[in-house]
Structures are given as structure tokens and as C-alpha cells.
């Protein structure tokens, strides 16, 4: 039989059998042995490592009637209690898609996409290590300050006026400001461009990036751009799976742990991990990541947090916290596992100041909204006042939780003066 014919026969037979047995998506670099025989390519985001922050009650953000693929993987590999560090699976090699993973295994072609990446040796008790970057946020965290950050949205046209006005309101109140961009898949100025402007306006900026919108190439290129502009903080996010309009193709060339690993590898070694190319002036960002503490079973976000720390994260901004008691239970586990010795953890606090924002809150992927919080805000005669009061109370309660280094205020509404008011009413 001719070699090409044989290859096609093996590929088709493998695809058919593994498709029936594992819902295999024929990536050609099979990791079923590492993932408890659950195919990670069946995740709608095709994440190799997960879950993303959108899963709640074990279900998928993008397909809410289906269990989250990565929650299933954790369950198969370590059960409902295990908390050991997960392996870091590399990004796939797209050239191997729809080829035979058996043949690729035999030839060794699947190795770069199958064999887990080694974690970098980043030392222990990392919060106590001397300053690593030029970030002022890092300096404040390491000085033991109670950290308060917030956000500013990148403009949706080539016009700085609204951003400048908001920056004027926020200046002097926060340790750093995230420059958010491409919200709901809509075009805007990029986060590095907005972050550079925020920095120029005298605030410490955090650039954001999502694997939904980036390939490895554009991710590293933006990190270089940040370094050039004097933006020394970078938050690496998965990004919400976008099901509405506009109907865009979503990238997911990496997952958030792989982004962290790529950025940290570059910071530590001056070499781009996926190309092997040396960069004479490498970007050296203070690296942030996100976590959803309300992902269940409870060991899943603990393992994911460990993975993000090992991949290179320095700080965390958590998903929205409206259930302080449940978050405190999560943080107790974080401290038991010693993760709080390596990561500065900021709790995400929503500042909900309008009826439309309140209605939207439970629809945000991964957000857990207790009934009591909804009732309290919905019944308020003055929702802005109640939203601010509730955020202040939440911040004070979070302050008492061991392992929490500060809060990240997220405005649900448009009036930035509300987050400033929360900041001013918090105890110093
Ligand atoms: S919740 Fe996220 S990680 Fe889990 S299957 Fe859905 S998209 Fe993938």
C-alpha cells in the first residue's frame, strides 16, 4: 500500500474510533493520557489548560447546558479533593490538526504540542523577594500597602476626551488602573495604547490582554509595546466566549496560564519561548491573572490558582465577590496551601449603580450573585447610594480575610465618581 494511502487510512480510522469513544476533535497531538481521557479540544474555547473563569456549578460558560470540560478533567485526574499542581500543557501546533496522533507520536512530531512545559524555577515565598520589575504597583504591594485598583475603558474611537476626563477623576485615588479594551468583542483602541495614555496622564496603568483576541505573536508584540511605553503591569485573561453580535472568530491560540508562562519566560530569560528568539530589551511586566473563587468543586480553582502562580503570575484580580463568606472559605484554602505566600490577591468588588447594570450582573459569565444582594439593590430607593454603600461594606469585610492584599473595584454603570466615593469612604 502507498504511504499516503496508509496515512489517510490510519488517520480516518483513528478519527472514527476516537471520535466515537472520546468525542475527539483530531488535533493530531493527543493529550488524553494527561487529561483523564477527556478531550480538552471539546472545550468551546479549545483551551489546553483550564477552566476559564466562566464556569459556574460545573457548567460551561459558552454552552450552559453542558458540563465544563476542564472541571471534568480535574475530576477525572484528581477527584473532588486533590489539589496538586496540574501539568502545563503546551499550545497546539495547528499544522497537525486533522492528522493522525498515532503517526505523529511515532515520528515525534507531536512532542511540542503534547509534552507538558516545564515550570520555571521562580523560588518560594515570592511576595518577599526583592523588587523584580519597574512597576509601582509591585512596589506598593511589596511595601504591604492595602491595594485598591479600578478600571478605565479604552475609547471606541480615536478620541481621548472621555478617557482624559475619567483619568482626572481617578487620579490620586488608586494604586493602578486597568485599561480594558475590546469589551463584548467590539472594536476600540487597544489596551496597550489606552494604558500608555493612562500612564502619560499620571496614573499607574495595567494593560490587559485576552487569549480570545490574540495569537502568540500579537501577545508578545503587545508586551514589547507596553515596555516601550513604560507600562509595567500586564493582566492576562482568557476572555469571555462571545456568542452575541458581532460574530467574530475567537482566537484562543493559548489559554491564560500559557500567556503567563510565555510572558514570564521572556521576563526571566529574555527569550521568546515559542520561537526561541532572543530579545535584547525584553518586556518585564508585573504579571496579573484572574481567578473565579466560586468555581466548583472547590479544589478546581485552587489547582488553577497554583498553575497560574507556577506559570508566572505575581498578582490576582478575582472575579466579582458578592458572597464574602464563601470567598473567605476559598481564601482559607488558599492560605492552607501556601499560595498566598507567592501571590498578591486582590478581591474583585462590583460597584453597581444602576438598574440596567443590576440586570446585567447575573448574566456576566462566572459571576455568582446571591439572592440577598440582588434583593437589597433592587429594593433600594437610591440605587447609586446603595451600590456605593454595599461596595464599601464588602471592601471592609474583605480586609479582615487573611491572604487578601486589596480590592479591585469594578464599576457596573458609567459614573466613575462612584468608585472614587467608595475609595474615599473605605478606611485608610
Ligand atoms: S467553562 Fe470555559 S473552560 Fe469550561 S468548557 Fe466552557 S469554555 Fe471551556
Features:
2 domains, binds iron/sulfur cluster, alpha/beta, globular, TIM Barrel, 8-stranded parallel β-barrel, 15 helices
Give me a quick take on this structure.
This protein has 428 residues and is α/β, with parallel strands linked by helices. The protein is 38% helix and 12% strand. It has helices at residues 3-22, 69-78, 101-107, 111-114, 136-142, 161-170, 191-200, 216-228, 256-269, 299-311, 324-336, 355-360, 371-378, 383-399, 417-425, and strands at 147-153, 176-180, 205-210, 233-237, 286-291, 315-320, 344-352, 404-412.
Lay out the secondary structure.
Layout lengths: L2 H20 L46 H10 L22 H7 L3 H4 L21 H7 L4 E7 L7 H10 L5 E5 L10 H10 L4 E6 L5 H13 L4 E5 L18 H14 L16 E6 L7 H13 L3 E6 L3 H13 L7 E9 L2 H6 L10 H8 L4 H17 L4 E9 L4 H9 L3
Parallel strand pairs: 1-2, 1-8, 2-3, 3-4, 4-5, 5-6, 6-7, 7-8
Helix pairs in contact: 7-8, 9-10, 14-15
Bound molecules: iron/sulfur cluster (SF4).
Computed Rg: 22 Å
Order of helices and strands: HHHHHEHEHEHEHEHEHEHHHEH
CATH topology of the largest domain: TIM Barrel
Low-pLDDT stretches are: none
Largest sheet: 8 strands, parallel, barrel
Q: Please, how many helices?
A: 15
Give the number of DSSP strands. Answer: 8
Output mean pLDDT.
96
Q: Name the overall outline.
A: globular
Main CATH class of the largest domain: Alpha Beta
How much helix is in the residues?
25-40%
Q: From the coordinates shown, what is the CATH architecture of the largest domain?
A: Alpha-Beta Barrel
| Beta-strand percentage range | 5-15%
Amino acid at each position: 500500500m502507498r504511504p499516503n494511502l496508509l496515512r489517510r487510512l490510519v488517520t480516518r480510522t483513528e478519527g472514527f474510533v476516537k471520535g466515537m469513544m472520546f468525542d475527539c476533535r483530531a488535533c493530531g497531538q493527543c493529550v488524553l493520557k494527561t487529561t483523564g481521557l477527556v478531550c480538552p479540544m471539546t472545550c468551546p474555547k479549545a483551551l489546553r489548560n483550564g477552566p476559564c473563569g466562566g464556569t459556574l456549578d460545573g457548567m460551561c460558560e459558552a454552552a450552559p447546558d453542558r458540563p465544563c470540560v476542564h472541571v471534568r478533567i480535574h475530576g477525572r485526574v484528581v477527584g473532588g479533593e486533590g489539589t496538586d499542581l496540574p501539568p502545563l500543557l503546551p499550545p497546539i501546533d495547528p499544522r497537525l490538526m486533522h492528522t493522525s496522533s498515532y503517526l505523529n507520536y511515532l515520528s515525534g512530531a507531536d512532542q511540542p504540542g503534547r509534552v507538558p512545559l516545564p515550570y520555571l524555577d521562580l523560588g518560594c515565598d515570592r511576595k518577599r523577594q526583592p523588587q523584580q520589575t519597574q512597576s509601582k504597583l509591585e512596589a506598593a504591594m511589596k511595601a504591604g500597602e492595602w491595594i485598591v485598583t479600578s478600571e478605565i475603558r479604552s475609547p471606541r474611537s480615536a478620541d481621548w476626551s472621555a478617557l482624559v476626563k475619567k483619568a482626572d477623576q481617578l487620579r490620586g485615588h488608586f494604586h493602578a488602573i486597568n485599561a480594558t479594551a475590546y469589551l463584548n468583542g467590539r472594536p476600540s483602541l487597544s489596551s496597550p495604547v489606552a494604558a500608555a495614555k493612562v500612564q502619560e496622564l499620571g496614573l499607574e496603568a495595567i494593560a490587559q490582554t485576552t487569549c480570545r483576541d490574540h495569537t502568540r505573536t500579537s501577545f508578545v508584540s503587545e508586551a514589547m509595546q507596553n515596555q516601550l511605553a513604560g507600562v509595567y503591569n500586564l493582566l492576562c485573561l482568557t476572555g469571555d466566549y462571545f456568542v452575541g453580535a458581532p460574530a467574530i472568530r475567537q482566537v484562543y491560540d493559548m489559554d491564560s496560564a500559557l500567556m503567563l508562562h510565555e510572558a514570564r519566560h521572556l521576563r526571566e530569560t529574555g527569550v521568546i519561548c515559542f520561537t526561541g528568539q532572543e530579545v535584547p530589551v525584553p518586556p518585564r511586566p508585573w504579571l496579573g491573572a484572574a481567578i473565579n473563587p466560586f468555581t466548583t468543586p472547590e479544589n478546581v480553582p485552587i489547582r488553577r490558582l497554583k498553575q497560574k502562580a507556577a506559570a508566572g503570575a505575581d498578582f490576582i484580580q478575582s472575579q466579582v465577590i458578592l458572597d464574602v463568606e464563601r470567598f473567605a472559605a476559598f481564601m482559607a484554602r488558599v492560605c492552607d496551601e501556601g499560595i498566598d505566600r507567592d501571590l498578591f490577591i486582590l478581591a474583585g468588588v462590583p460597584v453597581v449603580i444602576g438598574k440596567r447594570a443590576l440586570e446585567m450582573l447575573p448574566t456576566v459569565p462566572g459571576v455568582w450573585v446571591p439572592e440577598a444582594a440582588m434583593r437589597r439593590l433592587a429594593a433600594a430607593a437610591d440605587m447609586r447610594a446603595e451600590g456605593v454603600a454595599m461596595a464599601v461594606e464588602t471592601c471592609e469585610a474583605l480586609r479582615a480575610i487573611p491572604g487578601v492584599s486589596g480590592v479591585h473595584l469594578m464599576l457596573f454603570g458609567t459614573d466613575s465618581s462612584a468608585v472614587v466615593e467608595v475609595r474615599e469612604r473605605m478606611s485608610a
